[in-house]
C-alpha cells in the first residue's frame, strides 16, 4: 500500500518531527566524544526542524518585508566596487592578505548579500549583482595568488613542479606513466595548453586557465538554481556558493580537484535541465561528454559524480514506483512529467570509471586495486563507532601527543571556522523539508536532496566510524553547490511563511555572519591564516622558497636510496612537503620534537615561522602530530654547524667535531 493513501501523513512535517527526535537522540553524543560536528549538528538540526514546523503552521502568502530605499539600492554597487578596490590596495601595500583585508572583505560580502535580500523587486537587477559577485570572486582569489611567490597549498607542488613540468618538457604523457594521473591528465594538459597559447610560464599558465575558470564557474550555480527558483534566490545561491570556504580554497589551491569541481557544477546544471524542461539527445550527449571529462580529470571528483547520478536514479525509482505517493504532482506547482530515465547514464559512468581505474597505475598496483585494499584494511583494523581521528594527529598514538594547553581562543576558533557551514546546513535542511511535500516533489529537487544527503554520509557519517578513505575534505565544495541551491529554497520558504519580525532577524543574521564566517574559515585563507596561531600557512615567502632551492643545490637533491636513515632531512610540517614535492630533498620528514625537549636529528631546517605561527611537529615516528612554537635552539642545536642561513631559514648539519 502506498503511503499516499494515508491521508493524515504529510511527508514534510513527518520528516521535521523525525528530525527533532533525531536531534534529541544525537545530542548526548557530546558526552562520549569531543568533535565539532557532534557538538553542533544536533543543535542545528533541531533549530532547522523547529523553524520549518513553525513556518508550515502560518499562511503561505508572500510577506511584505522592509527593503532598502531606491537611492541606497542604487548607491550600493558603487560602494561595493570601491570596497573591492580598497581590498586590492590594502593587499598591494601590505604585501599579503592581512586581517584588515579579511575585515574589509567581510564588509563587502555583507553589502553584496544585503543587496540580494533587501532590495525591492523594482531595484533588484540580477545582471549587476552577478557582475559584482564574479568581480568579488576574482578579487578575493587573485589577491592571494598575486602576493604568493610560489604556489598555495600542498598537492599543487606535485602537480606543477613534477607532473605538469615533466609532460611539458617531454611533450608526452609517457613522462608520467608511473603516476595515477596518467589515467586522468586533463588538468595538466589544460595548463600546458594555456602556457603555450599565452607564451608564459607554467605558473602563469595555471593562473590564466584554472585561476580564471574557478571564479567564473559560480555562474553555473546561478544557471542551475534559476531552473528551480526565481532570479533573486538563484542569485543568493550563487553568492552562498561563491564565498563558501572550500569553494575559495579550490580557487587558490589549483589542482585537479578544482577542474573536477567545474565539471561537477556543469553536470548539476545539465541534470536539472533535462529533468525540468523538454530535452533532446543533444542534452544527453552533453552529459556524456561531461562524464568522460571528469573521469579523465580526477578520481575523487568522478566518485562524487557517481554519487550524484546514483541519487538521480534513486529519485527516478521513487517517482516511478510511487512508494511515498510522489507520483501525485500538483500541476499548479510543477507540470506533470514522467521521471527522466538515467540508468543508462549511470551504468555508462560506472563502467567507464571502473575500466579507467583498473588501468591506472598507483602504488605498484592499479588505482582500483590499491584503494579497495586500503578500504579493506580500514574496515578490519581501525573502523568503529566514534573512532575519531585526533585533530592534527596522523597516527593512533594519541597519548604520545604533548598537551600544549587550551586557551579560550583555541575553543572559539573551531566554531568560527565552521560557522558558515553550519548556517548553510540549517538552510539546506529547511529547503529539503519544503521540497519533500507531495505538492512540491519533483525528480530534480529530490536529486539534490538525496545527493546532498548521501554526500553528507561520506563527509560527516563515515568519519564518525573512523572511515576517512574517501578523503571527506575533498567533498565539501561539491556538497556546497547542492546545499546552496537547496538552502536558497529553504530561506525563500521561511521568508514567505514566517511573520516579518523573525524573518528580518534571520535575514540579518545571514547577511552579517555568513560571508564573514566563510571568509574567516581556514580554508578561505591558506596563504595567510587569520588565526595564524591555530592554522598553518600553506604558502611560503621568497626566502623560504630560496632556501629550498639552495639546500637542494648544496646537497645534490639525494634520493632516498642514496642516503642513510640518519641523513634524512627534518623540518616542520607543512614545509617538509615543499622539499619532497619539488625534489629538492626527496627524503624529508617531520621533526620529532619532544615536549620541552630538543630535536635529535643530524640534518634539520629551521625557519622563523616555526617560532611565531602554527607549524606541526611529531612526538613519535608516526609523522606530524601537534603544533608548537619552539625556539631556534630546540631545532638547530648549538652542537650543530649552520651551513646555510638567509635570516629566515637555517640549515643545520652535524659539526666536524662530532664526526
Strand order, main sheet: write it out: 4-3-5-9-8
Number of domains: 2
Query: Quick one: overall form?
Result: globular
Distance between the termini: 84 Å
Strand content: 5-15%
Protein name: Glycosyltransferase RgtA/B/C/D-like domain-containing protein
Keywords: Membrane, Transmembrane, Transmembrane helix
Transmembrane segments: 12-29, 36-55, 75-93, 100-118, 124-144, 206-228, 248-272, 284-300, 306-327, 339-359, 419-436, 448-467, 473-491, 503-522
Note down, in words, how this protein is organized.
By secondary structure, the chain is mainly alpha-helical. The protein folds into two domains: 60-328 and 336-524, no CATH class; 542-653, no CATH class. It is built from 24 helices and nine strands. The protein has helices at residues 11-26, 36-56, 70-94, 99-118, 126-147, 155-170, 186-198, 202-216, 218-225, 231-242, 245-252, 256-276, 281-295, 299-321, 343-359, 367-381, 408-435, 443-461, 476-497, 500-520, 542-555, 575-582, 609-612, 632-635; strands at residues 361-362, 365-366, 569-571, 588-590, 603-607, 615-617, 626-628, 640-645, 649-654. It has a five-stranded mixed beta sheet with strand order 4-3-5-9-8. Strands 1-2 form a two-stranded antiparallel ribbon. Strands 6-7 form a two-stranded antiparallel ribbon. The protein is globular. The N and C termini lie far apart (84 Å).
Amino acid at each position: 500500500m502506498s503511503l499516499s493513501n494515508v491521508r493524515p501523513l504529510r511527508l514534510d512535517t513527518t520528516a521535521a518531527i523525525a528530525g527533532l527526535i533525531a536531534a534529541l537522540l544525537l545530542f548526548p553524543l557530546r558526552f562520549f566524544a569531543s568533535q565539532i560536528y557532534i557538538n553542533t549538528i544536533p543543535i542545528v538540526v533541531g533549530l532547522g526542524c523547529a523553524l520549518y514546523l513553525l513556518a508550515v503552521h502560518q499562511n503561505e502568502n508572500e510577506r511584505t518585508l522592509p527593503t532598502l530605499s531606491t537611492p541606497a539600492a542604487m548607491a550600493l554597487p558603487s560602494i561595493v566596487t570601491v570596497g573591492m578596490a580598497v581590498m586590492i590596495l590594502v593587499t598591494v601595500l601590505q604585501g599579503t592578505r592581512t586581517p584588515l583585508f579579511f575585515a574589509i572583505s567581510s564588509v563587502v560580502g555583507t553589502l553584496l548579500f544585503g543587496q540580494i535580500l533587501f532590495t525591492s523587486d523594482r531595484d533588484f537587477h540580477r545582471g549587476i549583482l552577478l557582475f559584482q559577485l564574479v568581480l568579488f570572486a576574482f578579487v578575493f582569489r587573485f589577491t592571494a595568488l598575486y602576493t604568493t611567490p610560489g604556489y598555495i597549498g600542498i598537492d599543487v607542488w606535485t602537480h606543477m613542479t613534477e607532473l605538469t613540468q615533466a609532460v611539458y618538457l617531454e611533450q608526452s604523457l609517457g613522462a608520467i606513466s608511473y603516476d595515477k594521473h596518467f589515467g586522468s591528465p586533463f588538468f595538466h594538459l589544460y595548463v600546458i595548453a594555456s602556457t603555450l597559447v599565452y607564451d608564459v610560464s607554467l605558473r602563469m599558465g595555471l593562473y590564466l586557465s584554472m585561476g580564471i575558470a574557478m571564479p567564473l564557474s559560480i555562474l553555473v550555480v546561478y544557471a542551475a538554481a534559476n531552473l528551480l527558483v526565481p532570479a533573486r534566490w538563484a542569485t543568493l545561491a550563487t553568492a552562498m556558493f561563491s564565498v563558501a570556504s572550500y569553494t575559495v580554497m579550490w580557487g587558490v589551491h589549483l589542482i585537479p580537484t578544482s577542474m573536477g569541481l567545474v565539471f561537477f557544477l556543469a553536470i548539476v546544471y545539465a541534470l536539472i535541465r533535462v529533468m525540468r524542461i523538454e530535452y533532446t539527445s543533444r542534452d544527453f550527449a552533453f552529459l556524456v561528454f561531461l562524464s568522460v571529462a571528469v573521469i579523465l580529470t580526477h578520481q575523487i571528483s568522478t566518485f562524487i559524480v557517481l554519487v550524484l547520478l546514483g541519487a538521480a536514479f534513486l529519485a527516478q525509482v521513487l517517482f516511478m514506483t510511487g512508494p511515498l505517493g510522489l507520483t501525485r504532482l500538483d500541476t499548479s506547482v510543477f507540470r506533470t512529467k514522467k521521471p527522466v530515465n538515467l540508468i543508462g547514464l549511470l551504468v555508462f559512468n560506472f563502467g567507464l570509471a571502473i575500466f579507467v581505474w583498473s588501468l591506472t597505475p598507483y602504488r605498484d598496483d592499479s588505482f582500483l586495486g590499491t584503494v579497495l585494499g586500503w578500504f579493506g584494511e580500514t574496515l578490519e583494523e581501525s573502523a568503529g563507532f566514534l573512532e575519531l581521528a585526533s585533530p592534527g594527529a596522523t597516527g593512533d598514538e594519541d597519548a604520545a601527543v604533548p598537551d600544549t594547553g587550551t586557551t579560550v581562543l583555541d575553543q572559539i576558533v573551531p566554531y568560527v571556522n565552521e560557522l558558515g557551514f553550519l548556517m548553510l546546513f540549517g538552510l539546506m535542511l529547511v529547503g529539503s523539508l519544503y521540497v519533500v511535500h507531495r505538492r512540491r516533489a519533483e525528480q530534480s529537487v529530490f536529486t539534490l536532496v538525496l545527493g546532498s544527503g548521501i554526500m553528507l554520509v561520506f563527509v560527516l557519517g563515515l568519519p564518525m566510524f573512523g572511515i576517512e578513505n574517501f578523503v571527506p575534505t575533498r567533498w565539501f565544495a561539491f556538497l556546497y553547490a547542492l546545499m546552496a541551491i537547496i538552502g536558497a529554497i529553504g530561506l525563500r520558504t521561511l521568508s514567505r511563511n514566517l511573520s516579518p519580525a523573525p524573518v528580518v532577524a534571520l535575514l540579518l543574521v545571514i547577511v552579517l555572519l555568513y560571508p564573514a564566517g566563510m571568509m574567516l574559515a581556514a580554508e578561505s585563507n591558506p596563504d595567510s591564516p587569520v588565526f595564524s596561531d591555530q592554522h598553518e600557512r600553506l604558502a611560503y615567502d621568497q626566502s623560504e622558497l630560496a632556501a629550498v632551492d639552495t639546500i637542494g643545490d648544496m646537497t645534490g637533491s639525494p634520493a632516498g636510496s642514496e642516503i642513510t636513515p640518519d641523513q634524512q632531512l627534518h623540518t616542520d610540517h607543512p614545509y617538509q612537503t615543499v622539499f619532497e614535492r619539488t625534489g629538492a630533498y626527496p627524503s624529508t620528514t617531520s621533526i620529532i620534537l619532544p615536549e620541552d625537549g630538543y630535536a635529535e636529528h643530524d640534518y634539520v631546517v629551521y625557519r622563523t615561522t616555526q617560532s611565531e605561527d602554527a607549524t606541526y611537529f611529531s612526538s613519535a615516528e608516526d609523522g606530524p602530530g601537534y603544533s608548537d612554537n619552539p625556539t631556534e635552539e630546540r631545532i638547530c642545536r648549538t652542537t650543530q654547524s649552520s651551513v646555510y642561513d638567509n635570516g629566515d631559514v637555517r640549515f643545520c648539519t652535524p659539526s666536524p667535531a662530532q664526526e
